[in-house]
Design goal:
With about 450 residues, the protein is an alpha/beta fold. About 40% of the residues lie in helices and about 15% in strands. The chain folds into two domains: about 180 residues, no CATH class; about 190 residues.
Length: about 450
């Protein structure tokens, strides 16, 4: 990492990392983005392609940076036949188009499934994380060892700022959701354990097997084959059996987790999960005769994602908070996305998500091809960012999110840009989402791979 980017990322350990006005950091961000571009334009094939398309040789402004952003769909641009046909050599060649460091050819005959492919890549320093792919193909995101170390550092720093909890190894961590076993989740899990978990107690292990990259992608491939009528009966039967076994494990986990929480209720707890799982466990705790008055008043919580199509009572949030005695200043919320390695913790007073100085906001029009002018007041647009911390792939991404962003000081006092807690996906709002550059990016990647 060059010095311009390092000056900004070193702020991860600073208390004022969310308290720097955009105007005070604008020039430094442009310098750092250009530095990254000069380092990566010949290393990341897709970035080089975007630069040639735009006839850009350097980044002199935020407008220039927009022309080099990659749509989030770029990480889903591999042909599905590479997965369904287990063409690991072709999939590796595709991954090489978006990676900073060369992905070498692999011995295809020695690879037995996608989890084995991912493990062998990791042995060579390429850490692949995979999104859930609930609405289509999974995104495959390559990262470096340096990225894994950064995720450990940044996750705890953001949590501490947003929750007010100082890492003191004085809590028992209770995760209440099956975890996707991918490199980034493993890294942040290790970091939270090192920072928060009381060594005098064992961290609670949620009694449901983790979901592997193979499990995620196999589900996506099967869903596709069912839709086009090519799924084999034995594949469907195997999937249904696996799904039934997992559902039973999830159902059984509710009572097991509730009992463990009750036994640990006098200790400081950090609970995390998705709303559906948290609500179901909270209800089980209530059914056993316990509530907030029985739990430590210094407990903290982190909820990832939204409802994920779960149907819950209107007061589900309050029900969970009250059950585990979560005070407002211990409720950590964070806005981020798989394509970035840095988050935006929500402040307590303003209820807004705050950008650190190394995360460059590039709010675009709906089509994703034009930077919106910064106004004195909050304005809406398509979320796009340049994460200067990312090492193993390009840091500039156009998301599928519609956000409301403000560059003026927040009610909490922080002077950096902030995002209102009303983030929505264009695909949910309009049933479809088209990013202007996605087609040409997809065509290039498919042509190379």
């Amino acid at each position: 990492m060059g010095e311009a980017a390092a000056k900004l990322t070193r702020l991860v350990g600073s208390e004022n990392r969310y308290d720097i006005a955009f105007e005070d950091v604008r020039a430094a961000q442009v310098e750092a983005m250009n530095e990254r571009f000069q380092e990566r334009k010949d290393a990341i094939k897709l970035v080089g392609h975007r630069a040639r398309e735009s006839n850009l040789t350097e980044i002199r402004s935020h407008e220039d940076a927009v022309q080099l952003l990659l749509p989030h769909t770029a990480y889903k641009s591999y042909p599905e036949s590479f997965l369904s046909g287990e063409k690991w050599d072709r999939l590796g060649k595709w991954l090489d188009t978006v990676a900073t460091y060369r992905v070498p050819p692999q011995d295809v005959a020695s690879i037995h499934g996608i989890d084995d492919w991912v493990e062998k890549l990791e042995q060579g320093g390429h850490y692949v994380s995979c999104s859930s792919g609930t609405t289509g193909k999974s995104a495959m995101l390559v990262a470096s060892k340096a990225d894994m170390e950064w995720c450990k550092k940044e996750a705890v720093a953001a949590y501490s700022w947003g929750s007010g909890v100082k890492p003191a190894q004085d809590r028992i961590i209770f995760g209440m959701a099956p975890v996707a076993k991918v490199a980034r989740n493993d890294a942040t899990g290790e970091a939270y354990t090192a920072a928060l978990q009381d060594p005098n107690f064992e961290r609670f292990v949620y009694p449901v097997p983790p979901i592997t990259v193979g499990g995620l992608t196999n589900m996506v491939v099967l869903r596709k084959s069912i839709a086009d009528g090519t799924a084999k009966p034995e594949d469907i039967a195997r999937y249904e059996a696996t799904s039934a076994a997992r559902q039973k494990a999830v159902d059984d986990a509710v009572g097991i987790t509730a009992q463990a929480l009750i036994e640990a209720r006098a200790n400081k707890l950090h609970v995390s999960g998705l709303w559906a799982g948290l609500y179901n466990v909270a209800k089980a705790v209530r059914d056993l005769g316990y509530s907030g008055k029985d739990f430590n008043a210094d407990n903290s919580i982190y909820v990832g994602g939204g409802l994920k199509r779960a149907v819950l009572p209107d007061n589900y949030r309050e029900f969970v908070y009250e059950t585990f005695n979560i005070q407002p200043d211990r409720n950590y919320q964070n806005y981020s996305m798989q394509e970035m390695h840095s988050g935006m913790p929500r402040c307590q007073k303003g209820g807004r998500y705050h950008l650190p100085a190394w995360l460059v906001p590039l709010t675009l029009n709906k089509n994703g091809d034009e930077l919106l002018p910064i106004t004195k007041n909050e304005f809406e647009g398509r979320a796009a960012f340049f994460d200067l911390s990312i090492d193993g792939r390009w840091g500039g991404v156009i998301s599928g999110d519609k956000i409301s962003i403000d560059f003026s000081p927040c009610a909490c006092g922080a002077k950096g840009p902030s995002v209102r807690d009303n983030v929505a996906r264009y695909s949910d709002l309009e049933g479809d989402d088209k990013i202007g550059c996605a087609g040409t990016v997809d065509a290039y990647v498919r042509g190379v791979a």
